[in-house]
Amino acid sequence: MTMGLMAGYFALYAHTIMPGLGATDDRTFVGSFQAIDRAIINPWFMVSGFLGALVFTILAAALSLGSEQRRLLVWVVVALVLYLIAFVLTIAVHLPLNDALKAAGSPDRIADLAQVREAFDEAKWIRWNVVRTIATTAAFGCLAWSLVVQGRLTA
After folding, report:
1. Per-residue b/e over 6-23, b at no fewer than 16 CB within 10 Å?
2. Which is higher by pLDDT, 88 or 63?
3. To 10 degrees, what angle do helices 26-40 and 113-120 make?
4. What is the number of structural domains in the chain?
5. Which range of residues forms the domain containing residue 133?
6. Over the stretch 81-116, which tens digit does the pLDDT of each residue have?
7. pTM over 0.90, yes/no
């Protein structure tokens, strides 16, 4: 479930939030992105999504180590590797870009909003978000398939 939430979260940014913000002026883009980024960092998101997907996939891998569950392990490990790609991209690419935009300060106090937006590098953010979206969607598919395999083992 948490992997599906993360796939949906990244996809929502890819097909709705970033295209919507991309069509706005610099002031609206900077202020809106800052507000969204501040709002997303909350316990609910961290547990139900970002960290939850990692922890629960690791747990699923550990529970698949038993001899009866070995056929599940490959699908769960592939899902874990795919999610780790998204997790690392978030930490290495997205968080630094997001933090730099927040550090620019309130749009009311920024002298050159166009420069701040340009420094944010929307194209880079979007490009790597598409990679996160594909990786987490594929990871969700792998976990779903592991349930099919589990059903076949117990049938």
Report:
1. bbebbbebbeeebeebee
2. 88
3. 50
4. 1
5. 2-154
6. 999 999 999 999 999 999 999 999 999 999 999 999
7. yes
